[in-house]
Amino acid sequence: MKKHQNRCSATVAVLVENLQSSAAFEGSILTLAPWQQANSLTGFKAELAGVLHVAEGAAERLMVQAGALVRDLPSTLAAMECGELGWDFTVIIAEETCLLHAAEVAQEGIDAFEELLIAKARDARLNSFREIARRRRERAYPETIVPALVELTPTGPCASADPETVCRGSV
To answer: Over the stretch 146-163, which tens digit does the pLDDT of each residue have?
Structure first.
C-alpha cells in the first residue's frame, strides 16, 4: 500500500508542475503583463488549495516542492515513481539540494549528493534521515550551513514563493 501511495505522490507532483508550467506558458503566449501572470499563478494556487482542502500556504509549498522535484531532482522523482521513496523523504531531499543550489554548487555535485541521499533514505526513518541529510550536506559543503535562526523559521530558507531565486539558484 505504501508503494502505491508513493507512486500517487509522484503523479501528483508531476501534475502540479505541469499545470503550473502550463499557466506560465499560457501567460507568455498571451503576452500577459507580469502582474497578470502572477495573478494567474495565484489563481492556480487558490484552486489547488481548494481541491486539496488545505491552506493556500500549503498549496504554495506543494507548488514549489513539486517544481523542484520535477525540474531539478530526476533521480528522486524516479525513486518516488517506483514507490521506493515517500513524499516526506522527497521533501527533505529537495530542501537539502535547494540549499546547494542557493550556494551555487556545481550541478554534478548536487546530482551526486541527491544519489547519496536517495541511498540513505531507503534504510532510514524520517526523523533520523532529516539529521543524516543535514549532517552530510554540512560536512560536504560547509558554505551551506544555515544559521540556527533561519533554520528554525516555519517556512525555512527554501519555501520561497519564487523557486527561481531560492531553490534553483542561478540554474
So the answer is: 776 555 445 555 555 454
